[in-house]
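Hi V.,

Quick status before I head out on leave. The structure for the redesign project is tokenized and pasted below; the design run finished overnight.
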């Protein structure tokens, strides 16, 4: 059985951020990765993907962005190069192609069992992220057999899809971007829309993410948020690289929008009648954010230095959105489930889950010597962003090292 002080599970941006902090603190550790560094980016993304955050937000901990296009948007290949360079600079011990089978024990005596052997350690950091497994509804099994199912992890390009129309389920950033790409490839797309967000890419001369940073919307501590569990379920930012996308622009391309996919019955897709309500809610939240930006500009007396305030046309909703479709009869060949993700902690053999099976934690502190990174609103809204992991790692690494010090003193 091998021995180390800390085991980090996952060599993505969260794992590398924590490794950087532990290296600075002189804590010996090892990173375990089921594939290669940045494995999900290498193998579970579509070909055309570019990051939704600008390059100035995409520097890894201890490895800031060094290019000349600070306001540009990296493609996946560029991001992978950044990951590799960061890992090399940190000098961390990364064991690739190593699958974690179980984690159990207590602080100071955790055992991480892998397919390459066991590791005994004082502390464990679970940095395997929030997007391990697609969150697909149970009724997906009722989809007609001739209709092929995809997720953003398995979809690569439009040519991969079988002939026929495509049902995209979910108006997340992924769902909207892929609906647009597939529609532009010449296939008819129907987009099932549930709870979603709406943001302009640029507002008053700046990227919307810059405004979110300026007004402090991304750094509100989790302890100052009402109903943090509800906030952690809030839809992600619906943004794409370099331009705005919303349901209006998709409809301009010919995408048909319907309500949330509620069930599949006898080959028919059944949609809720809540489309108008979901769209109105997204518009309302967007306008509240824009008002917050306008108020900040006014308070800072910068009105004459930035573009004027503006508002956008409300989301167009069909007068009679369809409530059901016979998928086979209407020629659908595939469905793409852009319905979100969930983390995978099936290997965690400790009583740290709530009655719904969700990991319980206090800002990333799960138990003594046990930590989580990369989960939605872990410590602040940008916890799932690449640069957000840096802030979280600083705090959690300090907590971890303090625990080690107390253990030694005892």
């Amino acid at each position: 059985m091998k021995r180390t002080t800390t085991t980090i599970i996952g060599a993505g941006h969260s794992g590398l951020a924590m490794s950087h902090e532990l290296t600075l603190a002189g804590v010996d550790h090892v990173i375990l990765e089921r594939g290669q560094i940045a494995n999900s980016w290498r193998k579970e993304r579509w070909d055309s993907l570019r990051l939704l955050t600008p390059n100035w937000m995409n520097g890894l901990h201890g490895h800031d962005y060094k290019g000349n296009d600070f306001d540009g948007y990296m493609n996946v290949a560029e991001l992978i190069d950044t990951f590799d360079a960061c890992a090399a600079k940190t000098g961390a011990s990364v064991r690739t192609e190593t699958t974690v089978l179980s984690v159990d024990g207590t602080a100071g005596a955790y055992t991480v069992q892998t397919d390459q052997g066991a590791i005994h350690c004082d502390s464990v950091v679970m940095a395997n992220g929030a997007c391990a497994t697609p969150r697909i509804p149970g009724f997906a099994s009722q989809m007609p057999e001739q209709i092929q199912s995809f997720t953003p992890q398995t979809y690569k390009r439009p040519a991969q899809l079988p002939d026929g129309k495509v049902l995209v389920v979910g108006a997340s950033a992924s769902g909207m971007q892929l609906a647009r790409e597939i529609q532009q490839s010449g296939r008819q797309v129907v987009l099932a829309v549930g709870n979603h967000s709406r943001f302009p890419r640029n507002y008053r001369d700046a990227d919307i993410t810059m405004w979110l940073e300026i007004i402090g919307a991304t750094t509100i501590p989790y302890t100052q948020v009402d109903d943090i569990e509800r906030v952690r379920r809030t839809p992600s930012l619906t943004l794409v690289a370099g331009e705005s996308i919303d349901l209006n622009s998709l409809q301009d391309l010919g995408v048909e929008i319907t309500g949330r996919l509620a069930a599949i019955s006898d080959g028919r897709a059944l949609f809720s009648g809540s489309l108008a309500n979901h769209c109105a809610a997204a518009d309302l939240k967007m306008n509240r954010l824009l008002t917050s930006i306008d108020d900040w500009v006014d308070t800072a007396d910068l009105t004459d230095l930035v573009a004027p305030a503006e508002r956008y046309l409300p989301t167009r909703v069909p007068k009679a959105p369809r409530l059901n479709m016979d998928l086979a009869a209407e020629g659908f060949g595939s469905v793409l489930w852009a319905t979100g993700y969930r983390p995978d902690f099936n290997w965690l053999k400790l009583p740290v889950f709530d009655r719904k099976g969700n990991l319980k934690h206090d800002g990333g502190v799960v138990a003594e010597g046990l930590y989580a990174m990369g989960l939605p609103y872990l410590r602040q809204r940008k916890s799932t962003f690449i640069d957000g992991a840096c802030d979280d790692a600083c705090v959690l690494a300090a907590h971890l090292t303090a625990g080690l010090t107390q253990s030694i003193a005892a």
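Above is the designed sequence. The first strand starts at residue 2 and ends at 9.

G. will cover questions while I'm gone.

Best,
W.
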